[in-house]
């Protein structure tokens, strides 16, 4: 099967997750984004991102349980648009659900993230500064803005996945061009390589924890 990147076609569905959309755009997941089985999701997380069995299992179980999809045995990328489950406000490159289509990548937001690159790399400080801007903007524009401890856990988990997986072979920082291609085109850049060693659950949780402390401190400052 070809894993050439193709833009989604009319009728295809996509999620607010750049990684899952990239896997569909490259044909590791069904290109239409529909009827994804737990096995397909599990195998693609291992094949594309070299997740350990435990990490991939955790993500699949979490996802199918969260959206109540075990009975159906299938999930669609569109299901992940549901606000208040994994989807949350103040995303890096997507508008809040209350303000527009949460699965459509916003070029100006990608530009803001890339402008926060340091020495040409997206690293923890870049994500922290982008989060700060996104939190302030959402708080101002979205009357129903919600960002409590659950959302801190989710967003810090996404930042952790990004740095530990996309940045796996580049010292846990991501070349700005690779990041731009990942977030904007939802494509795995030609120069990007699959993690050389498996990415484990403790690795993800460790960085997740570090980020949640940073984000809580930022929120405290912004709301005091
Ligand atoms: C079963 C596996 C996964 C599921 C169900 C999932 C689901 C989601 C969802 C629903 C969002 C939207 C959250 C929001 O509102 O911002 C999201 C965002 C995100 N995900 Fe995933 N994801 C998965 C795997 C991954 C992996 C493996 C990576 C990295 C390689 C990743 C990286 C990200 C990033 C960086 C964002 C933030 C996007 C933004 O803030 O604009 N995800 N994910």
UniProtKB/TrEMBL annotation:
InterPro entries: Chloroperoxidase, Chloroperoxidase-like_sf. GO terms for molecular function: metal ion binding; peroxidase activity. It holds the Pfam family Peroxidase_2. The keyword Calcium does not apply. The keyword Zinc does not apply. It comes from Gigaspora margarita. This is Cloroperoxidase. The lineage of its organism: Eukaryota, Fungi, Fungi incertae sedis, Mucoromycota, Glomeromycotina. Keywords: Heme, Iron, Metal-binding, Oxidoreductase, Peroxidase. Its cofactor is heme b. It comes from the Eukaryota. Belongs to the chloroperoxidase family. Residues 1-206 form the Heme haloperoxidase family profile domain.
